[in-house]
Write a structure and sequence with these properties.
The chain is an alpha/beta fold. Helices cover 48% and strands 13% of the residues.
Length: 841
């Protein structure tokens, strides 16, 4: 026996989600874990993974009792978990995701070559071809991301791998590859705990099956002793015949609720569809057939650009989701956590969200009706004010359904809701809402589940414009109407074509990196600046003018480099101008015009800055105060200290120190060379050290970083310390140029806002996890060129700020448009897994 669990019990907020669960896992076997959503499967897996700690019960591994309080402990013991929601960082490479928290090092630096070789060996061992360690995860299809998750689990030398709904996001032909990988792992003696709602997979792969219901153990039996009917009966307490209920008595087809006539938008084209009141229609097809794209077009996410769309016989073409809701259309999206719920809000607030946003006058009535609606959907919760994030997956999905039913819709679009929900219950709810007088639904799901609908539509994949990287399927019902009968769908099949390419950036720009874009902008600024200065009768390219521009980049450059590090980690630092002022007056006071005091003055300034950065980092990462608030507070404290202790200029810099601000090495200012040296060291830090890799990870997704064993506080504290030290360098440079310490020079220069602006202009994402130092330095240079040109033209400060603002907004708009056009999660490269899939078959 490899693992033995006895009496595992877990409660959340007084609600017991697991009670006295027993589980045995044997080497080389696949153990199926099944049950409706809310049965406790994910909680049990998270206890084994070290995400949660059981309130009661024991876990034995190889006969030795163990208890895990962090995922890293479970992984070190040989237990890895592939969660239903992928724990991957889209902006990092395949290799960086697999080895996150365990990056191989050589002479203190990350050994990138070895990391790539080890990753390739893992992929080869799994029989996967077509994936490269250097590929960024955001460019991968869902199936490829699943492979990366499995490779990451295997990389821990796992003896037990738990898989939570591993095929939920895969097309049928991609499941064969997963089967092949699992069978290869079990042949090596790995035990697999396999959670799935798909009964075929359970019987195909598992030797033993454990059934949970409402957090309790129902049965554990050999798979050979069970069949579909018996397993469903154990899971839900009903026979298979009740899995897809018959229509509610009195329900019949009525007048058309939704009609599409030759509709298209570049994602889908030539769609003819008529959906009548009182029916459910299932839409299925291979990836790329346009299922999700059709629903998003109906809902106004990517509006139709041609053809006709009618709701209750009236022509409409929603240009936004808000307009679609006003027309009586609702969309239950595929990813409830990303686009379906506000997880930190209450059940009631989530359920009332669309009504409050679109039908404010109906809020009072909806407030009275929602509790009954949630009761009918059997939402299991402590109270209506409970935050949605603490509900099980199935109950979260019911809240998503309730928030749209509260709008009293005519048509409900449902994008693959069932892999994360209780299918029998949802099928029954669909039937109940497809009765006379109720709204319609479009229900997306796979072929087996589509069988529960009244009609079944399969888009024609032969016309696929691109291969979609995410699954989607659908079905539709309309509500209320006179008697009718089921029928087959008329009109042409749905297709996606080359026609009607969406409006966006030209292809040559769409694939540019943020750094490439900002460098192009820099070149454009130089060219435009030279033209404008020529109009004023000046030569832009004189040695003196170029030196002025380079000198101007150094002070802001130091601060912006530090700001980049902090922002990459998902934080912010508004205290930098005050740090620059404080360190300048401290160093000036210590130097007092004496050359012998230069080194003590520099060390004192750096030490003070490091302490300030350390405090900022601790408050942000340990006490979880937002960086904006923490550093704003620190800035006010420093400002108050300066105002109390320094009434005017303080101290003085000796001539030897002042030369740093005015000296040149060849054509380049010394200050600029120092700034560029710091930029090079920052680039090295981000690319070749664990702290740098972990900083990107924490900024991209702190929970993914934590589950990968990263000590999330370390990179944040390091970034804040370095940011403050670099601000101190800027303060010292200001001291060298002014000869005296000025207590207000930092705030006068607006270095906090200007540094953030340079970082954003350089392509770094304010939310963190994406960006680089090179783009930031280019952003600083753009501002220096702009300021130089506007100074020549004697432009007033108001117009200068307007121009800066326009440039920043335009750059961010270009980055956003580029990211939308890339659509990394929607489209996959065809054929990249073909060899592996063929071998698996």
């Amino acid at each position: 026996m490899l693992l033995r669990a006895r009496g595992l019990t877990k409660s959340f907020v007084g609600h017991t989600v697991l009670a006295d669960i027993d589980l045995d896992l044997r080497a080389g076997q696949v153990h199926g874990l099944v049950g409706e959503n809310g049965a406790g499967k994910s909680t049990l897996m998270k206890i084994l993974a070290g995400v949660h700690t059981a309130d009661r019960g024991t876990v034995e591994l190889d006969g030795r009792q163990v208890s895990f309080h962090h995922p890293l402990q479970a992984q070190a013991a040989g237990i890895s978990t592939v969660f239903q929601e992928f724990n991957l960082l889209p902006e990092r490479t395949v290799a960086e995701n697999i080895w996150l928290g365990r990056e191989p090092r050589r002479r203190g630096l990350v050994d990138v070559g070895r990391m790539h070789r080890d990753t390739q060996a893992l992929l080869d061992d799994l029989g996967v071809t077509g994936l490269r360690p250097q590929q960024r995860v955001r460019t991968l299809s869902v199936a490829e991301q699943q492979v990366v998750e499995i490779a990451k689990a295997v990389s821990y030398d796992a003896r037990i791998i738990a898989m939570d709904e591993p095929t939920a996001a895969l097309a049928d032909h991609e499941v064969a590859l997963l089967y092949s990988i699992i069978r290869g792992l079990t042949a090596r003696g790995v035990a697999i705990l396999y959670v799935s709602h798909r009964l075929k997979e359970i019987f195909d792969l598992c030797q033993t099956i454990t059934v949970l219901k409402d957090g309790r153990h129902v049965a554990t039996r050999p798979a050979t002793e069970l069949d579909d009917n018996e397993l469903v009966r154990l899971m839900v307490g009903r026979e298979m015949s009740a899995f897809f209920p018959d229509p509610v008595e009195g329900t019949s087809l009525g007048e058309p609720r939704l009609q599409l006539r030759d509709a298209g938008n570049g994602y889908v084209d030539g769609v003819d569809l008529t959906l009548r009141a009182g029916e459910i229609v299932g839409i299925s097809g291979l990836q790329g057939s346009g299922r999700t794209e059709l629903m998003e077009a109906i809902f106004g996410v990517t509006p139709f650009t041609r053809g006709e769309m009618l709701v209750d016989g009236r022509a409409t073409r929603p240009r936004s989701p808000r307009a679609a809701v006003r027309s009586g259309i609702a969309l239950v999206t595929e990813d409830r956590k990303a686009t379906g719920l506000a997880l930190n809000q209450s059940i009631l607030d989530n359920a009332l969200g669309p009504v409050r946003a679109v039908f404010a006058r109906r809020s009072g009535r909806a407030r009275r009706e929602v509790p009954g609606l949630l009761t009918n959907l059997e939402v299991a919760a402590r109270a209506l004010d409970q935050e949605v994030q603490f509900l099980s997956g199935g109950n979260q999905q019911k809240v998503v359904l309730a928030r749209w039913l509260a709008t009293d819709p005519k048509v409900v679009l449902m994008d693959e809701p069932t892999p994360r929900h209780r299918r029998r219950r949802q099928a029954r709810d669909l039937r109940a809402d497809a009765r006379p007088g109720q709204g319609g639904r479009r229900r997306p799901h796979g072929l087996q589940r589509a069988a529960g609908g009244d009609r079944h539509v399969r888009p024609d994949p032969r016309h696929a414009r691109r291969t979609a990287g995410r699954r989607a399927a659908g079905g539709v019902v309309g509500g209320g109407g006179p008697p009718g009968r089921d029928r087959s769908l008329g009109g042409s099949p749905m297709s996606t074509t080359h026609a009607g390419r969406r409006v966006g950036l030209p292809d040559r720009f769409r694939n540019l990196t943020s750094t490439g874009i900002v460098l192009i902008v820099l070149v454009g600024a130089v060219v435009l600046g030279s033209i404008l200065t020529a109009v004023e009768g000046r030569n832009f390219f004189t040695t003196g003018n170029l030196r002025d521009i380079l000198t101007a980049t150094s002070i802001l450059g130091f601060i912006a480099i530090g700001q980049t590090l902090v922002i990459l980690g998902g934080s912010l630092d508004l205290s930098v101008p005050f740090v620059a002022s404080l360190t300048g007056v401290i160093a000036g006071g210590i130097m007092a015009g004496e050359t012998g005091n230069v080194l003590p003055g520099i060390l004192a300034a750096v030490a003070v800055a490091a302490v300030i950065g350390l405090v900022n980092g601790v408050v942000v990462s340990i006490f979880h105060v937002h960086g904006f608030i923490a550093t704003l507070g620190m800035g006010l404290i420093i400002s108050g200290y300066i105002a109390t202790n320094y009434q005017g200029n303080h101290g003085s810099a000796p001539q030897s120190f002042r030369s740093i601000g005015i000296s040149f090495i060849g054509p380049l200012p010394v200050s600029t060379l120092l700034m560029l040296g710091c930029a090079a060291l920052a680039i090295l830090l981000l690319r070749r050290t664990r702290v740098g890799h972990h900083l990107y990870a924490v900024g991209g997704n702190p929970e993914v970083a934590r589950l990968s064993g990263v000590r999330t506080s370390v990179p944040i504290i390091t970034a804040h310390v370095l940011c403050s030290v670099l601000a101190a360098f800027a303060g010292l440079l200001l001291l060298a140029r002014l000869s005296v310490g000025n207590p207000t020079i930092g705030s006068q220069g607006q270095y906090d806002l200007m540094s953030i602006a340079a970082v954003v202009l350089g392509g770094t994402l304010l939310a963190g996890g994406k960006g680089n130092i090179t783009g930031t330095v280019a952003g600083v240079a753009i501002f220096a060129v702009m300021d130089n040109v506007m100074a020549v033209m004697q432009t007033d400060s108001f117009l200068r700020n307007v121009v800066r603002g326009v440039v920043i907004v335009a750059a961010v708009a270009v980055y956003a448009r580029r990211d939308i056009d890339r659509r990394p999660a929607r489209f996959e490269r065809p054929g990249v897994l073909d060899a592996a899939l063929q071998e698996a078959k």
